[in-house]
Amino acid sequence: MPDPTPAAVQSVHGRDCANSAHHSVLGGACLPGPRSASSRPMKPKASSEHEDQVGKAGGKITPRAEDYPQWYQDVIREAEMAEPAKVVKGCMVIKPHGYAVWEKIQRELDGRFKATGHKNAYFPLLIPQSFITKEAEHVEGFAPELAVVTHAGGEKLDEPYVIRPTSETVIGYFFSRWVDSYRDLPLLMNQWANVMRWEKRTRMFLRTTEFLWQEGHTAHANHQEAQEEVQRMLGVYGDFAEEVMAMPVIRGVKTESEKFAGALQSSCIEAMMQDGKALQAGTSHDLGQNFGKAFNVQFQTQAGNREYVWQTSWGVSTRLIGGLIMTHADDAGLVLPPRLAPIHVVIVPIFRSDDERSRVMAAAERIKAELVDIDISPPRARYRDFLEVVIDDRDMKPGAKFYDWERRGVPVRVELGPKDLEKDQVCVKMRVDSEAGKGKEFIPQAQFIATIRERLAKFQDALLAAARARLAARSVELNTWDEFLKTFAGEQSSFAWCHWDGTRETEARIKEQTRATIRCIPLPGQGPAPEPGQCIVTGKPSAQRVLIARAY
RNA sequence: CGGGACGUAGCCCAGUCUGGUAGGGCGCCUGGUUCGGAUCCAGGAGGUCGCAGGUUCAAAUCCUGCCGUCCCGACCA
């Protein structure tokens, strides 16, 4: 069971606890709390020894309506989520605040993978080039974006290594060594890793040359089991996106031309960003026996025959963070759903004199001490999760702090001043006005503490509801090509549900003329109820509508 | 990889056309004043102008190449 102490040691200065000067002062611990409560002069100087940049931001965030791509860049910079690596093309540095969100994503997903029977493992970063070429479609799909290691140890390698763009091949090789009998199946694995794809155009989080992800790889005795696994994990992704990220998604199947290179079929979840564009947020592939045959992954059946395994693979990446930003953030900066927020509550002390300062800080510490013991673990979680609370005792004007924490997306802000102490109350402001709270609320301290869980839950629900409303509002059923052209005029995008004749030619034509693509063929219950109709381009018969949108 | 924009102090940018001692704002440091939505005053630190060549008495500025960023395409599970 994790000790709740980590919640208590976090501070605005805690982002770089490696600072040696800081450690010497504090005896090796990064504990701002007691320090803050002592009778120090009003102008704290300890923070000046940190290299952190809290309070240094303050740059402009371009309004979404003015320039959406610029807004996206601005939010990432101002929230200090990440920055371009500069020295390595297309790569990024995920900064502490961004990485903390990724860690939360990891923990949530990892728990769900384990609950569905998967075990984590780790495979090599480098893959022999010959492996990649063993599956015909796979090599065709990935060859253009491979980075290759040709020299090592001062010598040219006999066979170059490819830096993994994905690990089906190397894992296929090991599966062939590990699987002998039907008793070895199913083999259910996952790895958390970095991969590299030399993309022509990169965007922070959405498509970077190197990115972090998880890739699940499983082997099964028959196709049906594999297909069930594909659906199971797509379900995990969909639930995670909606329950944890508060990001509604459409679950569906990719068309032939959009599927994973080497798969029989690819399933996906597609989310809508605030500009109406789609983001492929996760995929789950039915690999059939393609890799089983390429890497000779055979097993003996109960009847004694030798058969190739049926494999699946599924993954989500740091792209999810981009999706999170473009789902919830606003013109004031990042907005984080409580279940992924590294910090849930920030307490901003308000004071004038030294006397007020010490009284307010003491009260803030008391409130924090109560809050950090509150268990906010999700239902059935295998770990305990506690409220993360920060007291912002920086020497800045309160208003400046408000802007700062809003940019970082902290869900709840508490203002605590002398007036509040007199009335035993706190001033609460939610990051986004919703049912969880509107404007500044003045409520008794005890009530705030007693209801914080409910408040966060409501906030989480409100974000999902708002995103669902947006998805509904920008989803349209289109029946004529004229309507279609109008919907995708200029840079616009919506989720267009249209009939399609099922041919690759029509799909290509739609893309050529509008740059919109078929995002998926929806699964039952996703999108409009299936009803036959006529293809929006050719007028040929169609069994159901498909989802078409511009995509990131 | 094509088209466009760009790279000057931690951040945002002016200066480049028309070559001549590197500037501003924010942030940072010191002191004071303030503190419930981005205080104010005074003083101060910080830059081989993305990198490498070239032209020139002289290059942030002109020329060539390279690297990187952003946007639009092509490409992309």
Describe the secondary-structure layout.
Layout: H1 5-9, H2 20-26, H3 32-37, H4 68-78, E1 82-84, E2 92-94, H5 96-115, E3 119-120, E4 126-128, H6 129-132, H7 136-142, E5 148-152, E6 155-163, H8 168-178, E7 187-196, E8 210-220, H9 223-244, E9 249-253, E10 265-272, E11 278-288, H10 290-294, E12 298-300, E13 306-308, E14 310-317, H11 319-328, E15 345-349, H12 354-371, E16 389-391, H13 398-408, E17 412-416, H14 418-423, E18 425-430, E19 440-444, H15 445-473, E20 475-477, H16 481-487, E21 495-499, H17 504-514, E22 517-522, E23 533-534, E24 541-542, E25 545-549
Helix pairs in contact: 5-9
The structure holds one RNA strand of 77 nucleotides.
Folded structure, characterized:
Helices cover 34% and strands 24% of the residues. It has 552 residues and is of the alpha+beta class. The strands form six sheets. Strands 3-7-8-14-11-10-9-22-25-21-20 form an eleven-stranded mixed beta sheet, sandwiched between helices. A hairpin with a 6-residue loop joins strand 23 and strand 24. Helix 5 packs across helix 9. The structure holds one RNA strand of 77 nucleotides.
